Amino acid sequence: MAMTVRLPEELDRKLEAIAAAEHVSKHALLVQGAELIAERRARGELIAGAIDFVTSHDAALLERLADA
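The chain above was modelled as a monomer; its predicted structure follows.
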């Protein structure tokens, strides 16, 4: 899917420098960044789910540990 991205000049210059140093296009760099954000969000959701599971299934154990 095609899309146009309007970046502030300073950010565009920073991305241009990073892309040149990495030997990739700015487009590829932006795709990598979007993938990292999506992965970070998914990982955060997994961690939140794991914490919810532990707190709901091990509430008694956590209470005993807090009292120890």
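The longest helix spans residues 26-57.
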